[in-house]
Amino acid sequence: MNNKLHKLLPIAAAAMLSAGFASQASADVVVKIGHVAPLTGGIAHLGKDNENGARLAVEEINAKGLTIGGQKVTLELDAQDDAADPRQATQVAQKLVDDKVVAVVGHLNSGTSIPASKIYSDAGIVQISPSATNPVYTLQGFKTTYRVVATDAQQGPALANYASGNLKAKKVAIVDDATAYGQGLADEFAKQAKANGMTVVSRDATNDKAVDFRAILTKIKGEQPDVIMYGGMDATGGPFAKQAKQLDIKTKILAGDGVCTDKLADLAGDATDNIVCSIAGMPLEKMADGPAFEKRYQARFHQPIQIYAPFTYDAVYIIVDAMKRSNSTDPAKILAAMPATDYKGVIGETQFDAHGDLKHGVISLYNYVAGKQKLLDVVKM
């Protein structure tokens, strides 16, 4: 063998080995963030909207580059479907724990967020719901539960105050879908309605898979309420309003954020003109970065925002903010950093109280004109 070549081989081997170590040292650490929402079933459009918001944040953060504790980090969205079913939600929550996610954005519904929260609490993993509004979610004593929307303890009264103050309603009929969300919102509405001197003439329950509301609506028509309050999602709230109009019920229907969606016009037809609904956050057009976010969202997904995509988007950034402040991707350190959150994002400034609720909740009230949402009022709670 050529003597010169013989001397060069060990040097080349050492260089390759060194390059291998350098490559290994600079290889990105993959950090998983969980996301859960219904991706199948009647409200899959809302679930996909939530997932899209979280995915956009992950893609942007990865594109900019993220370094935590001197290590390059690549985020991965571990997206799961709970089908809006409490039992499936707990199974999915355990899967995310087993997948070693460092935090979870979700779930969409109160009825899934609440049972899943025990599993995340036991594992010491931060859970930020972008859309669960039932007060119970953050009142269980878990240190892991957070949300970036107002609660039904604010949303219910805002609707009741609008009914008595703006609509001058004296009698109200209440219907809910028997879920943690629908029933909880209806309870909070009823409490405030009574405090405002309104009479609850009836309280009926249906379910979140119902399609025919004519029996309940026929009974309500005979009671002649000034307003009807419906606690549920758009998949049932739309047909509920449509059937009310078919029965020539002219009474205004009040509903919460589950009904207050872009898709409602498809589900309710021209009955949307009879609906007043609320969203447990600032309207997109009133958010400082709302229009710019909407532009990026539509460029990426080629569809309109339903409701809570900006909230899931910010939730991912809030988790990353906690990583940066703790200089760690360790779930325990992320959790320890969460109470001191003061993050300015698309939805505004996010600070949490001792329960994990927003310090400054906002409720937006809408009606529909020719099938399009129109902002009526923004109520700071």
List keywords for this structure.
disordered N terminus; 6-stranded mixed beta sheet; alpha/beta; 381 residues; single chain; elongated
Write up this protein.
With 381 residues, this protein is α/β, with parallel strands linked by helices. Helix content is 44%, strand content 22%. The protein has 12 helices and 15 strands. The chain has helices at 3-26, 44-64, 86-98, 110-123, 152-165, 180-195, 214-223, 234-246, 264-268, 290-301, 309-326, 331-337; strands spanning 29-37, 66-68, 71-81, 103-105, 126-129, 145-147, 171-176, 199-205, 227-231, 252-255, 275-279, 343-345, 348-350, 362-369, 372-380. It has a 7-stranded mixed β-sheet, sandwiched between helices. Strands 2-3-1-4-5-6 form a 6-stranded mixed β-sheet, sandwiched between helices. β4 (103-105), α4 and β5 (126-129) form a beta-alpha-beta unit. α3 runs parallel beside α4 (110-123) and α5 crosses α6. The termini are far apart.
